[in-house]
Amino acid sequence: MSTKLFTFASLLALASALPHSTLSQRRAQNTECWQTNPGTSFYRCDNGYVGCFASDPCALPAKPVNVYELTKPRSYNIYVLSEAQHNVEDKVPHVDLNKPADSSITTTNAMVFDNVPAGAKNCQLHWRSTAPNDENSFTVAGSGAAFSRQLLGFPSGDEIVSFDGLKKYQDPNAKWSQSLDFTGWTEMPGSHTGPRLNCATQVALELKGSDGPADQENRVFITLTETNGFYLTYEL
Fold it and tell me: Is residue 179 one of the residues assigned to a domain?
């Protein structure tokens, strides 16, 4: 078979394995494979195999993925719901979602995971608890319900981290996720799964606690350490 015919046949055979590539991209990828690994073609399969292979890997079992985690996110507790308050990063990272009894004010929290690798996928929020000590603390008063929503970005430079300062980064289409519930968490040590998040090199989100009933204090207080509180997982 001539080289031209082989090239055309190879591109047709790979079309189903490369649904998101244009014909020119497939041709360039195959040319690179042939130059660096003679006898191979480029594949991008749903089972995780991507690269130059001598035979089609798309029918193989799913490729094992490596799961990584980021702990101790930057945390900003917002105690006054106005632009006037300048919320600085907590020196001791913690989340404090608090509604005092007979109050309609519920504090919120802004949390940021930095340095997520480019190419990370399947990002997800988790939380865990461990035996309390000088660093690890977890307390709940009243309702343990809490809610989260992902931000499109986060204040930087001279921007103020505040209730109003976060508004420009809120996604108008994003709803509060109700997948956080810390009721009885102290009786359930270990890891718990939260909402899935869109991966980016910086993953930021807001948290808020329950605002009812009106005459009851509701508070969730969590320190953020390597073994306690929120953490992010992702795959590479």
Answer: yes
